[in-house]
Amino acid sequence: MTEVFSDSRYMIRRKVFKLFGGAFHIYDSAGAVTAYCKMKAFKLKEDLRIYRSEEMHEEIIRIAARGVIDFSAAYDVIDSSSGQKIGTLQRRGVKSMLRDEWAILDASDSPIGKIIEDSLAMAILRRVVNIVPQTFNATLRDRVVCRYKQRFNPFVFKLEIDFHPEFRDNKSLLIAGGILLAAIEGRQE
Predict the structure, then answer these.
(1) 120-129: long-range contacts (C-beta < 8 A, 24 or more apart)?
(2) pLDDT given at position 29
(3) What's the CA gap between 103 and 94, in Å, rounded?
(4) Using alpha carbons only, what angle is made at residue 7 by residues 34 and 87, rounded to the nearest 5 degrees?
(5) 7-55 pLDDT tens trace
(6) For residue 79, how many other CB atoms are within 10 A of its CB?
(7) How far apart are CA 149 and CA 91, in angstroms?
(8) Do residues 179 and 18 lie in contact, with contact meaning Cβ atoms separated by under 8 Å?
(9) pTM for this structure?
(10) Spatial distance between the Cα atoms of 126 and 15, rounded to a whole number of angstroms
């Protein structure tokens, strides 16, 4: 897979007025659209596609739910050009009741990290007062590799992704994590 995401900062913005399905723009640190994600409407299983542009000529990543409406859903992240699984992101259902948490699994479904809301106290406050933006840390092999931070805006969902400067691995799995945070966690607002 050709690395599409080589920048260290991104912003995911959920399209404001979309009648069916979901749409997300992914911007790099210069503000240019790096990718576009479309979520199909009326699907029992989540199916998100990430394209190089809004024209949707070249699909680069597919995010596919393994099951139908599952509290602890697992989402396979697939390189569209090769058809190979990059990894899996699995929502931790019971753990996510108070503090959102996702497991990061490698291509063979072995745990390699997690995406977790920043603090239990802030997570509880967010559930009571819906104007406190969410922040998540992603760790791989016990090392924080990126931070997801929601920017409060009552009309537009924006999620910033800041990668650690030394992180040089393929960022596609963690970008997919950001899309899932915007699509799944963002729905809870």
Answers:
(1) 123/98, 123/99, 124/98, 124/99, 127/98
(2) 94
(3) 13
(4) 80
(5) 999 999 986 655 556 789 999 999 999 999 987 765 667 789 999 999 9
(6) 18
(7) 18
(8) no
(9) 0.87
(10) 23
